[in-house]
Amino acid sequence: MKEIARTGRPGVRSGDLLRGAGSRLFNCLWGLLALAGAVQFARAAEPLVQADHVLIGRVTAGDDGDGVGFATVWLPRLERGVSCDENGEFVLDGLPSGVCELHVRRIGFHDAQLQLNIGERDSIRVTIELRPAGFQTDELVVSANKTTGSAPDDAVLRLEGAALRDRLGITMAQTLRDEPGIAEQSMGPAPARPVLRGLGGDRLLLLEDGTGTGDLSASSADHAVAIEPLHAANVEVIRGPRALLYASQALGGVVNVQREKIPRSTPAAIGGELTLQGESVNAGASAAVRLQGPAGPFALRGDYSLRSAGDISTPLGVLDNTQIDTRAGSFGAAIHGDRGSAGAAVNLYHSEYGIPPDPEAGHPGGASIELDRYGLEARADWQPSTDLINVLRADVSMQSYEHFEFEASGAAAVLFQRRSLQSGLQLLTADGEYLRGGTFGLAYTRSDRRYDGLVSTSDAIEQGIAATAVQALHLPALTLQAALRADLHVIDPAEEKLSRSVGNIRSRTFKGVSAALEARTKQCAGLSFHAAAMSTFRPPTGEELYSEGPHLAAYSFEVGNADLQAERGLGLEAGLSFRSEQFHAGLTAFRNSFTGYIYPRNTGERSTRRGDLYLYQFSGADAVMTGAEFQAGLMIDEVWHVAANFAFVNGELSDGGYLPMIPPASLHVEAARQLGSGELGLRLTAAAAQNRTGEFETPTAGYVVVDVFSGWNFSWMGALHAFNINVSNLLDREYRRHLNRVRHVMPEPGRSLRFLYRLYL
Amino acid sequence: MKVSNFSLRPGARFRFAQTLAIAALTLTFMTSCDDDDHDVHGEHFEAVGLVIYADGAEVLRLQDNQITGSLSLNVDGEVDYAVEFILEDGDIEVPHGDEVLTLSVEIDDDATAEVSDVDSEAYSFSLLGKQEGSAEVTVTLLHEGHADYVSLALPVIVAP
To answer: Which domains are delineated in chain A?
Structure first.
């Protein structure tokens, strides 16, 4: 029997650095100290300001040569940027020699990329021509006095601008679910995570500004992701070698939500965004504001959002207990010198949401969750005076997370706490003619997990250190990219003991090496080919090793396995793509095999303690996932555009049977017509029936759903206004997604009118 | 050409800094003032099975998810049952001490039999046979609103 504090906040072990309400004050003090340190760092950097190279540029619109004010000019490699003034002019100091990639972004225009080869001259002048945005294409219009062309991109998918506004959902999973190969795993509208190629949990990392959110969404379907989509500037999915920079187990890839809590550039003027969003299917409304501006030597930035939605309506009625109330905010400051930058940010996320009732699973009244996350991040970049090193980067992130799970009666049943620390040092080498994108890093992570209430799971501390190296080799016809990563991971339970169901609960140490190699040919007659291999290493988590007890909101009784071994993955993929001015298409096939694939296996038995809950035992089994993705887009003429993507994955256990929670084959087709500065389109989503089910998993029927989407923007009173109006599930079809854990209770939402307004200042 | 970084007038810069400082203080205040103190209730009674007695004799046992015996009674007959719980180490006992636990007994077909006299101090209940047939009861041990223990569905047989 577990001793638990009876009143007030549960007790915390004496060794904890971050504790309860006091931790928030601690976080704030840390934030101030980090900010003060950042100021000192940047001031120390100031005397070194002797720019190696200066880039003087102007961003213009189309053929008329008018300057585009307030465009953002961004150096992704250095993660530095600058805003243009009202005439579209900018200056970037302190650029190192070598190949330099430049991204230019302004709402209402297509993004532009430019690759410069900075030689011996001190100053370089460049003019960048932006093309007004109609439909999203990858075509770039760039003129410059240096090398031009598209630069290699780590992201296999980037969602931003009009496309992001169109898809912006209540969660990141809903925002991404129409993208190729991505499905949404959910347990009600609030707790949802994306799944890519059948890989979810922490095999598909979810990051905000390149760091983990500290939440527990990867560990269970009922845990929400502590990221507010309204704050996303863009969302990128990174796969392949560079994914190993973030984690050893990211065979599915990395979803990185760029929020830029720490300002990456100093704006020329005060600016920001105001977003209002509404949805009819749940009487939901949300609002978000972002402001940034210069103040003395600092760049300041803050954002805040509120979201509130009621129960979801479905074609069969209202799905009870699916409400959500969320608030999130951050405040960051940074200083940018010519030899570096430093900054820090604090953030908070609070959410209260319901899990729909499931009488079959023992919770006819449902359950509710209340979660809080507080975070502090700091980061410093230094550009040393050497031709070999571009940037030395240090970053640290501390997150304090906790959530309570409540019975329908309102009684708090379970508390999950996690205090995490992520820190890293990275060295970015200078790009040369052939060797580019070299990144070498060291990382240390620590996660203190604590459980209280109706669980017997052992508290645990997880610590890890990792060394990573990534390098690309650019040959005339081929780009090769390789990555190597070594990890040491230790999990210490608070108490070592012998458990009849879990086994010998003891400290575990895991060591592993991960590696990846990718080859990508340059386009030849529009055709290009790529192939990649990746081996991953995933140590079991504390929950997978030591869980023991009812998981209230997941409607399961979870039992860990103290003897689990590390999971090893081997991913292989190959693809062919074609691109012309009007048409592009790509086909990729993949095979991911696992040794000791860890998953909660439904035993089909009821718990002896909770006869109303099924027993889920964490198991390791050999498994293989195979699949393919196809996508194509066609610009029919100046105004019409069609696009489609198709994906399927099959997950099988080596000893027979299918893996559970594997998405069915899916097809997305959309046709859109440009109307002035906007567009109107129709989107069709189809999914096949999923009959390849895991043990005790029920099949799901196929479905076809039609959505209508529209969006337009215009300038008025010196500001840019963007509107999106969508109708999802236009025909009010009853359908169920296979990855929805409560799909047997109620179908997906019915017809819904969605509205989004964004004001850019 | 203007260098874009410091283009605001000093007054405007101050106002912006002031605004964001207030925003930061507000964030900090909100961070500190969240009322998220919840009482995750104390000790839990971790039973893994139960034994039901009638007139001092064992009539049903649920252990390792195996049920032996049944709750048998006649139409219009009433039987009093006492419940004891099996712990993980095999001991059989009823909750005691300061624990505030409530016994709940639910039947899926109250036309066949009716549950009455549920006593959370004596851990006992009664069944009244109403018509011939079979039904199932579930025994739950509630602790401050949530279930510490829920049995499997236990067979009830009502004879003529």
So the answer is: 20-30+156-568+588-616 (2.40.170.20), 49-151 (2.60.40.1120)
In a mutational test of the A interface, the residue from B1, B2, B3, B4 whose CB has the highest number of chain A CBs within 10 Å is B4
Under an 8 A CB cutoff, do A611 and B150 touch?
Answer: yes
Q: Does pLDDT of A141 surpass 50? A: no
A51 interfacial to chain B (CB closer than 8 Å): no
8 A C-beta contact, residue A650 and residue A626:
yes
pLDDT of B28 higher than 80: no
Judge contact between A94 and A51, C-beta under 8 A: yes
B47-159 CATH:
2.60.40.1080
Domains of chain B, by residue range, sit at: 7-33, 47-159
A177-204 average pLDDT score: 92
Rounded-to-integer distance, Cα A453 and Cα A472, Å: 50
* Joined tokens for residue B101: 């636990």
**Of A711, A708, A707, which is closest to residue A723 (Cα–Cα)?**
A711
Q: Quick one: DSSP state of residue A731?
A: T
For residue A515, give the 3-state DSSP assignment: strand
CB–CB of B32 and A21 under 8 A?
Answer: yes
Mean pLDDT computed over A51-55: 69
Shortest Cα distance from A238 to chain B (angstroms)? 32
Sign of the torsion formed by the C-alpha atoms of B113, B116, B118 and B124: negative
Complex ipTM, two decimals? 0.78
- The DSSP result for A596-663, as a single string, is EEEEEEEEEEEPSSBTTSEEEEEEEEEEEEEEEEEEEEEE-SSSEEEEEEEEEEEEEETTSSB-SS-P
Do residue B2 and residue A84 have CB atoms under 8 angstroms apart? no
Average pLDDT, chain A: 86
A151-155, A286-290, A516-520: which has the minimum mean pLDDT?
Answer: A151-155
Greater model confidence, A35 or A521 = A521
Q: How confident is the model at residue A115 (pLDDT cuts 50, 70, 90)?
A: confident
More confident residue, A518 or A88: A518
pLDDT, residue A64, reads 66
Which chain A residues are closer than 8 Å to B7 by Cβ?
85, 268-269, 294
As a whole number, mean pLDDT of residues A61-88 equals 77
Report the distance separating Cα A738 and Cα A173, nearest Å: 14
Per-residue pLDDT at A147: 28
Q: For residue A612, give the chain B residue with the closest CA.
A: B150
**Mean per-residue pLDDT for A557-584?**
94
Residue A33 has pLDDT above 60, yes or no: no
pLDDT at B29 over 70: no
Partner A contacted by B24 (CB < 8 A): yes
Instruction: Give which of A467, A207, A262, A464 is closest to A381, Cα–Cα.
Output: A262
Neighboring chain B residues of A612 at a CB cutoff of 8 Å: 138, 147, 150
Q: Using the predicted structure, report yes or no on whether residue B54 has a pLDDT greater than 90.
A: yes
Of A302, A454, A605, the CB nearest to B24: A302
Residues 97-126 of B with CB under 8 A from A: none
- From chain A residues 360-419, the ones with a CB under 8 A of any chain B CB are 362, 370, 372, 374, 402, 404, 406-407, 409-415
CB–CB contact A85 B43 (8 Å): no
Nearest C-alpha in B relative to A271? B16
